[in-house]
Records
---
Amino acid sequence: MSLTPLVYSQWMGCSWDFGSINVALEGLLEGGQTKTPKPMKTGTTIAGLVCKEGVVLGADTRATSGEVVADKMCAKIHYISPNIYCCGAGTAADTEKTTDLLSSNLTIFSMNSGRNPRVVMAVNILQDMLFRYRGQIGASLILGGVDCSGNHLYTVGPYGSIDNVPYLAMGSGDLAALGILEDRFKPNMEMEEAKELVRDAIHSGIMSDLGSGNNIDICVITKQGVDYIRPYQESEYKDKRQKRYKYGPGTTSILTEKIVPLELEVVQETVQQMDTA
Amino acid sequence: MCLQESLSNVSLYLMCLYLHFTHRYYVSSKTINKLIQVHDRIFCCIAGSLADAQAVTKAAKFQISFHSIQMESPPLVKAAASVLKELCYNNKEELQAGFITAGWDRKKGPQVYTVALGGMLLSQPFTIGGSGSTYIYGYADAKYKPDMSREECLQFATNALALAMGRDNVSGGVAHLVVITEEGVEHVVIPGDKLPKFHDE
């Protein structure tokens, strides 16, 4: 009788290479003249809470690249499935791609099985994937959704740890937002009260954290459907454009024009017959 | 990072844990569950990196289920502990997680096994682990008696946890205890303020 993996060879088909490749590359680049580009991080405040009728997720909309705001209207609440949405903090590209991948996987699953995926399934898929990459994928996610077993809110860390919680805040502004949530959260809140609480939590993150700012997005998921309110509240500190910066055709005068026809010859031609029988 | 303790008794056995997971220098969760059920009558206490521990227990849960289906009978606690040990030992460079596996099976009754960081597997009548365990080795050695009743076991575990939480700065929050017997599994939760106090002002 052998207990050790009868089906998979080592760590359930897992390889540790993903983490080590990045570390090796970093070593190569450090020594040379090239420097790795600074990834666009969503210094962020995201928050979520479970209320009586569903789940409320909230996020700010600022994306920073170093000390510059790269995107003032960044969408941090990503669609996963009709009943599951995900807020992402950390490296913007990582959260986008990870949630996209998850969404595709779950769509295929829904088509195959004919049912909406459960939140816990999404969480497990994310956990497996992030753990394999040993923290190299900088994505801290808050997953919220409503399925047949109730309203759920999960957090997934960049190393692959998960936790099931009734309320949560993540990102660089998490401590500020958590203060508000800890003070006013009650189980089974009414929808309006819950939306106000999430708004206040994100607002406090925006005020106290440099990496968070601009508008507040709210996403409300209930059994009946999803209400993605973008923006729920606009920032008071919007600046007005001074002029029109669009230029009509003819603004730049054309001095000379030269047309050169390109001589192309056919080098190779392949014909593939399509079987439409 | 967390304190784990398990006791073995003739007809029952108990496992208790703290919930307190620290990330950077703040408490990211006061209510993390560190007692993970890997089979009907087998539980696992986790210590170390949360991500590593959760991934290992997931893989172990799968392998133990599969093993149990192949053997057409519930797994032995020793088998479950071995699965964890294999995972920890074969991946010792990448992992940083320790476990206490405990449960009940028909062959040997209640048992406790500890799987350390590098993959060492030991069977013991009772064991403690985690960062807070260093503060209660004396207490545990002095107060443990074999063949305690269920109430005595619960009291012993609660006292030990309270003492460790009182001294270790990274342990705290809520205490979870699980009582596993042939009949079933009972989950006892004691919030921090209901724990016994020892010279606390």
---
Amino acid sequence: EKVSVEVLDHLEHLALVDFRDSEGVERLQKAIQFADQLHEVNTEGVEPMDSVVEDRCLYLREDDVTEGNCTKELLENAREKVEEYFVAPAGNIPLPKLGERETFLQGS
Amino acid sequence: QVSAALKEGHVTPTELCQRCLALIKSTKVLNAYITIAEESALKQAEASEERYKRGQPLGVLDGIPIAVKDNFNTAGIETTCASNMLRGYISPYNATVVQKLLDQGAVLLGKTNLDEFAMGSGSTDGVFGPVRNPWSYSRQYKEKSVPKSHSEDKESNWVITGGSSGGSAAAVSSFTCFAALGSDTGGSTRNPAAHCGVVGLKPTYGLISRHGLIPLVNSMDVPGILTRCVDDAAVVLGSLAGHDPKDSTTIQDDFKPFELPDLTDVSKLSIGIPKEYHAPGLSSEILALWSKAADLFQNAGAKVVEVSLPHTRYSIVCYHVLCTAEVASNMARFDGLEYGHRSDVSESTESMYAATRREGFNDVVRGRILSGNYFLLKQNYEKYFVKAQKVRRLIVNDFMKVFRSGVDVLLTPTTLSDAAPYVEFIKEDNRTRSAQDDILTQAANMAGLPAINVPTALSERGLPVGLQFIGRSFQEQQLLTVAKWFEKQIQFPMIQLEEIKRHDHGVLQDQKSTSFS
């Protein structure tokens, strides 16, 4: 069962990363095939495990401000900024649909 | 030893630092370092020298040159994760483990090379090129390699370091530093340790802070320690372990640094040999060494038992799903806005992000992000992600059962074979290689258990082979004690670096056998 183009397109949207070429798509197919081995294991009645330290209480510190005031340092690594803002292009324009954007999937 | 030498004034921290820097330059072919922090290292060495002159060194690590894998944040020093995404990124802060080492007076020589974002088992997939195993240039390897033809490029059969902390392993193995930090998510510290003939320690998850370590898999990542002997690993562990308020996954129990006793009586020890670790593809050489090691323990009076960890072979599949899922989430932060590479595309936020990520990540990283997103899709969530989490619990239960039955430490091989030549290694893609190479190391990450690679012997090709000990959670003292005993019994040979040695005879002589503890 190959992954449909719709799903591949959906993944490109979600991840904001592209498959680039047929090798990329193949890579995903193989990854799914590999993961399918999990279904050989009987996990009836088994609880999923989130963390190996699940039996302990994680540390929560007091809600006091102990550091900060490092605007200058934090802005240093950003390429585009204005005053104390990070500048991004318009956010209300969605990624072009399959037929309109430059993606390998177009040909599929 | 070197620490004692510093204390007694036989050598000064600046001399030591300069020699290491010179050695790094002459071993450039190894490509172990991405960034060399020459100026700051010398300043740190000078400060250390002042302290020694006043008779007030900060501790055993004062003045000791170290290297740090390039996925740890280091203030004022470029941190790239061997990726175009972070080229030019100058960390504004030190990772907690880096800070701890600096607070002890250690001298940070530079950042070491790795697979891009620590994804890989060869240290071959970073944007700065592959790391070469120093043993490629050892007399031991050259003696055993048969030249195919006179005109063959001598350089072409160099072997990989393993990964993903290959740069750190190569740095320690080639004497350019006395200890290095790596990271271990699926075996990334132990694998290169085995291939480079050094000690590689993966501590228990929750013992050492991950604050400042650029995350791959939050539930499995740990900082790893690479040194030339087990005692050194214990010293470094002592300075790094303990609760960090900045990393809430570090446990709050008090940690007391320990010195390793010289164990003489192993009769109360129970060593488990998990039969599933006799994995397909395990070289007969390593199988024999593993067997010999088990006999060694038995003959010395320890109880050696075969045990079973039935879900071992699913560990790698489980890892594959959980890792890609967490990676998909962790890599989402790289969008070009706050740091790192930013594309020139600016039609919209989404298109800028997409272009930035297309330009910044290599195939391996992108592949894992896409796979991870697939497994996390609503229609796949139960089938893959939750399923993997359930299998994870089964794997952990396997270990708990074995330890409850009285076994103290498990003994297994670390890798399936000795280091492959680069030209062979790259014939298969990253995912296939990782799946093959992580098989023996991954389960310890799944269960969060401490594990250590101890260099054991040289293979028929003259390359290092190591064995792995896996211990109970937070029982590093026991684990390292056993490892140290084993290390003493087997007397792993020292690397005899050839061509490189010619240029720096003097430097090497002094550093050859030195550990710092």
